[in-house]
Amino acid sequence: MPLISIIVATRNAAGTLEGCLASIRAQSFRDFELLVIDAGSTDGTVPILEASGDVVTAWSSAPDSGIYNAWNKAIARARGEWICFLGADDWLWDAAALERLEPALRQALPRYRVVYSKVRQIDAGGSLVEELGEPWERAKASFRAHSCIPQPGLMHHRSLFEVHGGFDERFALAADYEFLLRELKSRDALFVPTPTVGMRYGGRTTSPENFHRLLRETRQILELHGARPPRLRWAYWTACAWLYVRLRALLGDRWARRVADAYRVISLRKPRYSAVRSGRH
């Protein structure tokens, strides 16, 4: 049994998949398997997988109903003690990323069945947008109201899926949060304060349209778990999403992002949407 199963779901990902695979291939820690579940891609994804037998343990290509369906398929095949998920446009930050996680994984049980680290969001130009991830002592209260720990590279002990089942495929954007909430509403997670994953800013949950859907799903999830969404915070998020959609329609995406960042600066927060800061992968 390998210590880690890495699962990557792909759909027409030829433009980024090679970078993801290269980062896994470069790891100094070798006790892992890599499973790739492809959704029947029609670009060059399948040829890349066919040529990557040195790093890809197993792969399949067939239509699926979404990323969580792909993840559930992969979980059934995974042999690792710990299971993590990467997007096809994510990458392990450096060659020692898994090596830095290994001590925490070896020592986590029985207290912790979820281990997470820092994730660096990178823009299209290769510049750092934001570093995500904070100690569980600070994240705990917020997590039980909304998802606030980064999913890419987060380590799930395989016993979680034996206890809780798989991802709820009714949720298109937030099933990973719903799954973690089953565990973390009554248990703790272990934070490793080092960056292990890079992810491209601008994923499916960052568009205004999907952000509205993400809010709806998160509210449904909280109600499903008997939690009451924080009214003032929820009203604020909804208003921000509505305002951003209107600004984008009036000013275009570039200026809407600049206005959003100007508001963040005024409210003593770091720019996120349009600012470029140093830090390249």
Which structural class do the helices and strands define?
Answer: alpha/beta
Q: Could you give me the name of the CATH homologous superfamily of the largest domain?
A: Spore Coat Polysaccharide Biosynthesis Protein SpsA, Chain A
CATH class of the largest domain: Alpha Beta
Helix content: 40-55%
Task: Evaluate the radius of gyration.
Answer: 19 Å
Please tell me about this protein's structure:
The longest helix is centred in the C-terminal third of the chain and has 21 residues, at 231-251. Helix 2 (45-50) links the parallel strand 2 (32-38) and strand 3. Strands 1, 2, 3, 4, 5, 6, 7, 8 and 9 form a nine-stranded mixed β-sheet that branches. The protein starts with a strand and ends in a 15-residue tail after the last helix. Helix content is 41%, strand content 20%. It has two domains: 4-206, Alpha-Beta Complex (Spore Coat Polysaccharide Biosynthesis Protein SpsA, Chain A); 208-267, no CATH class. The chain is an alpha/beta fold and 281 residues long. It has ten helices and nine strands. Helix 8 (208-224) runs antiparallel to helix 9 and helix 9 (231-251) packs across helix 10 (253-266).
Question: In short, what is this structure?
Answer:
The chain has 10 helices and 9 strands.
List the keywords.
alpha/beta, Spore Coat Polysaccharide Biosynthesis Protein SpsA, Chain A, 2 domains, 41% helix, 20% strand, disordered C terminus
